[in-house]
From TrEMBL:
<feature type="domain" description="Molybdopterin dinucleotide-binding">
    <location>
        <begin position="7"/>
        <end position="105"/>
    </location>
</feature>
<dbReference type="Pfam" id="PF01568">
    <property type="entry name" value="Molydop_binding"/>
</dbReference>
<dbReference type="InterPro" id="IPR009010">
    <property type="entry name" value="Asp_de-COase-like_dom_sf"/>
</dbReference>
<protein>
    <submittedName>
        <fullName>Molybdopterin dinucleotide-binding protein</fullName>
    </submittedName>
</protein>
<dbReference type="InterPro" id="IPR006657">
    <property type="entry name" value="MoPterin_dinucl-bd_dom"/>
</dbReference>
Length: 140
């Protein structure tokens, strides 16, 4: 299995919007937002199958999600992650004086992590805020 260096773009998706209506702590939202869409050739180059858990790392953090073949145009060297809790773990906070973080066009490293656990939204937020003590602060 091989590590790749790609360019990340976060995005909105119809599936994400539909799942958000059900709630950000639902299984549906988890299923549609814990993915990184990649070019099929990049997935093959990594030596993994679609739906394998991978670790996505940027200059400011890391997150575990499933690698899937992109459902839209995605040239080699580019990957998409849906905006939300999981994407926010790797989005650089730089704003270039716009007031918005750099949601698109930043480098990431993606490596296979087939035995890793994808963390649910509430736990991920609590960990990001240093509030994780092994149990949820509010129910899901």
């Amino acid at each position: 299995m091989k590590t790749l260096h790609l360019n990340m773009v976060t995005q909105r998706a119809v599936e994400e919007g539909e799942a958000m209506e059900a709630g950000k702590t639902t299984q549906k939202y988890f299923d549609v937002c814990t993915v990184v869409e990649m070019n099929a050739d990049d997935i093959r180059e990594m030596g993994i199958s679609p739906n394998t858990v991978v670790k996505v790392t940027s200059e400011c953090g890391e997150v575990f999600v499933k690698a899937i073949i992109a459902r839209q145009t995605c040239p080699r060297g580019l990957c998409h992650i849906r905006q939300g809790v999981w994407a926010n773990q790797v989005v650089p906070p730089r704003t270039q004086s716009t007031g918005e973080p750099q949601y698109s066009g930043f480098p990431v490293t993606i490596e296979p992590a087939p035995d890793a656990r994808i963390v649910p939204a509430v736990e991920l937020v609590q960990k990001a805020c240093n509030k994780w003590n092994g149990q949820l602060l509010w129910p899901m």
